[in-house]
Design a protein that fits this description.
2 domains, Tetracycline Repressor, domain 2, elongated, Arc Repressor Mutant, subunit A, mainly alpha, DNA-binding, TetR/AcrR family transcriptional regulator
Length: 216
């Protein structure tokens, strides 16, 4: 007779210990994503997450050192979803840079609209927790800058604007897009998404026009 999964994390059916640990870890991350994205990181306890995940509390510490460690993992997975949405948008766009920018930004804002947990975790719950969490936040901004740099480099006059200078400008550009997204969320998505995308595209295109080679 096959034994059911127990509250202390034991599971039978022939699953290897490493597989069971990974399953528990996944359930904890899923439960924390809901908790941090709905109730907030500071309003959530390890006990609550373990209860939601159906994992004995002592098994929490086989995967995470503390709640901040779990927050970092939730944030990384949330940020990965945002980056993947942008990459998917770029794959679906044609070669025209304006179209690529619009499709990528539309995919980014669509995810924010479709899953309110994403902006709460990525924009608000992540801020001011600790220096380690702040570093993770800026690592994600750097990743977004990398995407922008790869997208616009073919259209930039690198003789006039060296890559190091362009990267600094793009860091500010990514920050501006994040602020637009934050304001949209704080306003409870009152502005139509098409208008938000238009505003973000205007900012990107203005920067691109300034960095591009002179014509005429």
């Amino acid at each position: 007779m096959t034994a059911p999964e127990l509250d202390d994390g034991r599971r039978y059916r022939g699953a290897a210990p490493g597989q069971r640990q990974q399953e528990r870890r996944t359930r904890l991350i899923d439960a924390a994503t809901d908790a941090f994205g709905i109730d907030g990181y500071r309003n959530t306890t390890v006990t609550t997450i373990c209860a939601t995940a159906g994992v004995g509390k002592r098994y929490f510490y086989e995967s995470f050192s503390d709640s901040e460690d779990l927050l970092l993992e939730v944030y990384r997975e949330t940020a990965a979803r945002m980056i993947e949405a942008i990459h998917t948008g770029l794959r679906d766009a044609d070669a025209d840079v304006d179209q690529q920018v619009r499709v990528a930004l539309t995919a980014y804002f669509q995810l924010i609209l479709d899953d309110p947990r994403v902006p709460r975790i990525a924009f608000f719950e992540i801020l001011g927790v600790s220096p380690a969490v702040d570093r993770a936040y800026y690592d994600v901004l750097d990743a977004l800058v990398d995407i922008c740099l790869a997208l616009i480099t073919p259209h930039v006059d690198l003789e006039t604007h060296p890559t190091v200078s362009v990267r600094t400008v793009l860091f500010g550009l990514v920050g501006a897009i994040v602020i637009i997204a934050q304001k949209w969320v704080l306003d409870d998505y009152h502005q139509p998404m098409t208008d938000v995308v238009d505003s973000a595209c205007l900012v990107v295109n203005a920067v691109l026009a300034k960095l591009g080679p002179e014509t005429g």
